[in-house]
Specification:
single chain, Rossmann fold, 2 domains, 44% helix, binds nicotinamide-adenine-dinucleotide, binds uridine-5'-diphosphate-xylopyranose, UDP-glucose 6-dehydrogenase, EC 1.1.1.22, oxidoreductase
């Protein structure tokens, strides 16, 4: 089957970059990315490439090459659905905030709306692809909607699962050179196999055949949740040991290096931190826990829930270390945050540890001053308001946002590094020190700074997982 028109519903962090790369690598396919968010679509169409709604290194170049040629961004959802042979559903699947499964299950209302819209609009056969991360067995619900809520025309649907493994900050690299592309489908029928083949041949334009893995649809759906659970588990594992290192004069970076050299363990994803963030890890593990519970698998659920419990502890522990080190009171004291994004090289702040650390400090009446090279002031306030801990006015009173790190740190009692942006390593730390209150405290929540050199300047340093931290 020759694919000529692709539609992607959802122009977010996944839909936008993924489709841009497909369009770049497949000039013979027309790719239309649609969204109900008009502002987002307008930003994707902005002449000024620095205004794209997603910041990802290299994304602007890819968009510049393909946009207007065979890559289009539009709010005309129905039109794009009907014109397409292949439809990717890449809408958000956040944790439910209401009703049954509140705080744990994935909210599938956007997915269901998409399925109903496709069924209502389609007048020709479609391959419908789950690009969003979904609970295992969602494909059967999508199939039931597509097959039973149609518009009366004899349209046939094939459903595939094709989860996305890109990480933010390296999305373009990950898309151009993926470890694997996973395609799950109905391997028991000729139509199912044909659909799998059609999607595989899109990727085959740039991904080597041996890296395109096909499975049954349930394995594919579950593999995505499993991959994120395993990755997050590694971070919680090393973070749990960071606390033990701090008590025993061991150094977590040395421990990580020593265990990472064992090829069975591997060296990646062993960087101790203030806690993992991002839109995926917490949401997907909670979803996994919820699914296990619905099958009555309580031990399985408890096992994975511990990854989240550990992460919450790590964020709180970091904030409490700041408070106790600053003589048990931060009331009225300026604490400067370097970084707000959940990791470097992205403007995404969803579930960022910085939000929770700020929240704890604001509870103690601290004055938080933030500098992040990519995150807007508006976004930071929105993140804090979303927690509902205090009023919007109180958040604005407690937090000030700077577009210059030296201004943010001026007169501060402490600097806390919350994101591992490379530029933080290049600052004139003597200058920062000179402008601060004394003693000048430094809390490196990412383990990126040379704290020995900073101590020579005069800083009192706390580094995640270092056995040399000051006695608290
Ligand atoms: P996002 O919130 O950035 O984007 C989703 C977009 O879908 C939004 O712009 C929203 O307006 C749009 N949308 C929702 N309902 C719609 C509808 N009915 N019609 C048209 N548009 C609609 O989300 P994201 O980060 O791109 O994530 C999308 C999915 O991919 C999620 O399931 C997520 O778990 C998964 N995922 C995300 C990442 C990541 O790094 N962000 C990585 C892998 C997988
Ligand atoms: C993750 C998965 O990596 C990706 O495959 C999936 O598609 C989406 O979810 P993402 O959340 O974008 O990607 O970033 P990732 O690099 O995984 O980092 C997640 C969080 O863990 C960040 O807050 C990061 O700082 C933290 N982290 C990561 C650590 O604290 N230590 C590490 O060693 C690695």
């Amino acid at each position: 089957m020759d694919i000529k028109h692709i539609c992607c519903i959802g122009a977010g962090y996944v839909g936008g970059p993924t489709m841009a790369v497909i369009a770049q690598k497949c000039p013979h396919i027309n790719v239309t990315v649609v969204d109900i968010n008009e502002k987002r679509i307008a930003a994707w169409n902005d002449e000024d490439l620095s205004k794209l709604p997603v910041y990802e290194p290299g994304l602007d170049k890819v968009v510049e090459e393909a946009r207007g040629r065979n890559l289009f961004f539009s709010t005309e959802v129905d039109k794009a659905i009907d014109a397409a042979d292949m439809i990717f559903i890449s809408v958000n699947t956040p944790t439910k905030t209401y009703g049954k499964g509140k705080g744990m299950a994935a909210d599938l209302k956007y997915i269901e709306l998409c399925a109903r819209q496709i069924a209502r609009v389609a007048t020709s056969d479609k391959i419908v692809i789950e690009k969003s991360t979904l609970p295992v067995r969602t494909a059967s619900a999508i199939k039931s909607i597509l097959d039973n809520t149609g518009n009366g025309s004899e349209v046939k649907f094939q459903i595939l699962s094709n989860p996305e493994f890109l990480a933010e900050g390296t999305a373009i690299e990950d898309l151009l050179d993926p470890d694997r592309v996973l395609i799950g489908g109905d391997t028991s029928t000729a139509e199912g196999k044909k659909a799998i083949q059609a999607l595989a041949s899109v990727y085959a334009n740039w991904v080597p055949q041996k890296q395109i893995l096909t499975t049954n649809v349930w394995s594919s759906e579950l593999s995505k949740l499993t991959a994120n659970a395993f990755l997050a588990q590694r971070v919680s594992s090393i973070n749990s040991l960071s606390e033990l290192c701090e008590k025993t004069e061991a150094d977590v970076n040395e421990v990580a290096k020593a265990i990472g050299m064992d090829s069975r363990i591997g060296s990646k994803f062993l960087k101790a931190s203030v806690g993992f963030g991002g839109s995926c890890f917490q949401k997907d593990i909670l979803n996994l826990v919820y699914i296990a519970k619905t099958y009555g698998l309580n031990e399985v659920a408890d096992y994975w829930e511990q990854v989240i419990i550990m992460n919450d502890h790590q964020k709180r522990r970091f904030a409490h270390n700041i408070i106790s080190t600053l003589f048990n009171t931060v009331s009225g004291k300026k604490i400067a945050f370097l970084g707000w994004a959940f990791k470097k090289d992205t403007n995404d702040t969803r579930e960022s540890a910085a939000i929770y650390v700020a929240d704890e400090l604001l509870n103690e009446q601290s004055k938080v001053a933030v500098y992040d090279p990519k995150v807007s002031e508006e976004q930071m306030y929105a993140d804090l308001d979303y927690l509902n801990t205090r009023s919007s006015e109180e958040n604005r009173e407690g937090v000030s946002v700077f577009n210059n790190p030296y201004e943010a740190c001026k007169d501060a009692h402490a600097i806390a590094v919350l994101t591992e942006w490379d530029e933080f390593k290049t600052y004139d730390w003597q200058k920062l020190y000179d402008q601060m209150q004394k003693p000048a405290f430094l809390f490196d929540g990412r383990g990126i700074l040379d704290t020995d050199a900073l101590e020579k300047i005069g800083f009192v340093c706390y580094k995640i997982g270092s056995g040399k931290n000051p006695e608290i």
